[in-house]
Amino acid sequence: MTEQKPGNVQVQRMENTALENNCTAVLSIADTVRTTLGPKGLDKLLVDELGNRFITNDGATIMLSIKTIHPVAKLVVEIADRQEAKAGDGTTTAVILAAEMIKEGKRLIADMGIHPTLIVRGIELGIQRSIELFKQMAVKINMKDARLAQVISTAAGSRMDGNQVVSLVSEALNILKNPKGKKGMVNLKKSIFLINKPGLEDMVFDGIVIQRQLFDQQIPDRLDNVKAILLKMDLKEIKESWIKEMRNYDEIVRMKESQTKMTKEISDSICMTGADIVFITSAHTDDLLLSNLLEKNILLIHVSNEELLNIANALDIQVARRKEDMGKISMGTLKSVCYDEESGLLFFENHAQRKMVTIIIGGVTKVTSQERWRAVKDGISAAQSALNDGIVAGGGAAELCISEKLKEENLNGGVDSIGIEVVAHALSSIMRQILTNAGFNGFEKMTEIRNKSGEYGIDISTGKEEDMFEAGVIDSAGIKINALKSAAEIVKAVLRIDRILIASSPHNAVVGNPVNETDPKI
Ligand code: ADP
Ligand code: MG
């Protein structure tokens, strides 16, 4: 086609240059995290501008920490960020899947001259079919199923002893009476609160723990049967600077009077509720309000919006936003409140409602504590997803099986078969990478199990084939599905971009020479 119209040759070359650059950008990011996949993945040493160093093999942490300037590389990081926020795990898997599809897609476009639209359509169909197959393959489990612990341990990977993660998360699950939220879906991320505190022992607390240094209040070591209310109000005190700005003396007096009146009304209405503790989000509070409440032995604790939401969830009560609400909202009861001055932790123990539980993750150093925190977070995400979406064989076995099925269904060819083949190729790369990272020849090992059922994989210690379910290497289907969806998003975008244009403002794009405009530096 390009030969008939010589004018098109240049366009074709430019299109490929943009694709070439974008592909290089995606592969650079993927190659950075590729070697971390699986429990035998290698670690990366991250060093920031201030010389702070930390070692991790968590794909999400690495991707979010490295500096990228290429727009497409930034897109990969964004997708990784979204996968992390939505599924809480599977970030490296998503990026490797995307990179493999883009690499193969680029080869077909650049070397074989196939139109991107055709490939993208096939990829879309391949992804849709893979998601259907993952759903069909997923085995439903409940809280009592022994395989839940194996999912948690598989997700914790090498970052922490799997048994420790399992015991912390299982203890937390035992405390929660009913972790099912709206529409019957389990929402553990909302009900298990995680804190990392180097120097402490790991522990699971039946309630909420917040980190707070309390300097100016006389807090008793322990209070029992405490009634609490929650306030989200702005209780700004009058600042000196405001007074200085006001020239009019009467105005200052009026302002002071109205502030004193309002503070008195608020403290009266708090006292009327009979609460022992007030959790409040306002950053500043009037000294008068503080002393009024202290006089009545009412404790005022400043919390962040997130903490307030967690406490509201734990106590199952509403938040008062106006003074008038205080008479209407219900109070929550806490079995006890304790303050540990040494660690600066405030412990609020659950009463009857066991809707929140806190896992405190210790560790010898800040770095190890953070890495252990990530392992527990991944375990919780995997457990939640497994309870909601079911489980599949881990170690890349489920992906390999779906890859084989796609190829089988694709045998009769058709226009979309090229794109579907791209998806099949990417899916098989997960096991290959896990095996390569464990020191095996991934290609060779996989030929031994290609024709077995979906549960077969390779033991990464012995190199022998084994049933992944029996070996206890189990993944949640939801995280796999999410990784595929995240990967699809970036693949479709990258393969369709034929030029990168410099926009002087978001709505004012200027067409330039694409050969010079992309910067493959990462
Ligand atoms: P991601 O960021 O994608 O979660 P991980 O480094 O956590 O990447 O690796 C997850 C992959 O490692 C999953 O496919 C999981 O099944 C696999 N995996 C975990 N434990 C084992 C194991 N013991 N043997 C083989 N594969 C494992
Ligand atoms: Mg993981």
Count of structural domains: 3
Level-1 CATH class name of the largest domain = Mainly Alpha
Largest sheet: 6 strands, mixed
Assembly status: single chain
Kindly name the structural category. Answer: alpha+beta
Sheet with most strands: strand arrangement? 5-10-9-6-7-8
Beta strands, count:
17
Ligands bound here? adenosine-5'-diphosphate, magnesium ion
CATH architecture of the largest domain: Orthogonal Bundle
Low-confidence stretches: 1-14, 508-522
**CA(first)-CA(last) distance:** 35 Å
* CATH homologous superfamily label of the largest domain: GroEL-like equatorial domain
CATH fold-type name of the largest domain: GROEL, domain 1
Specify the helix fraction band.
Answer: 40-55%
How is this fold's topology laid out?
Layout: H1 6-34, E1 44-47, E2 53-56, H2 59-65, H3 71-87, H4 91-110, H5 116-137, H6 147-156, H7 162-175, H8 188-191, E3 192-196, E4 203-205, E5 207-211, E6 222-231, H9 240-245, H10 249-273, E7 277-280, H11 287-295, E8 299-302, H12 305-315, E9 332-340, E10 345-350, E11 357-361, H13 366-389, E12 391-393, H14 397-409, H15 417-437, H16 442-449, E13 456-458, E14 465-467, H17 468-471, E15 474-476, H18 477-496, E16 502-505, E17 508-510, H19 514-517
Parallel strand pairs: 3-11, 6-7, 7-8
Antiparallel strand pairs: 1-2, 4-11, 5-10, 6-9, 9-10, 12-15, 13-14, 16-17
Residues 89, 155, 157, 378 line the site of magnesium ion.
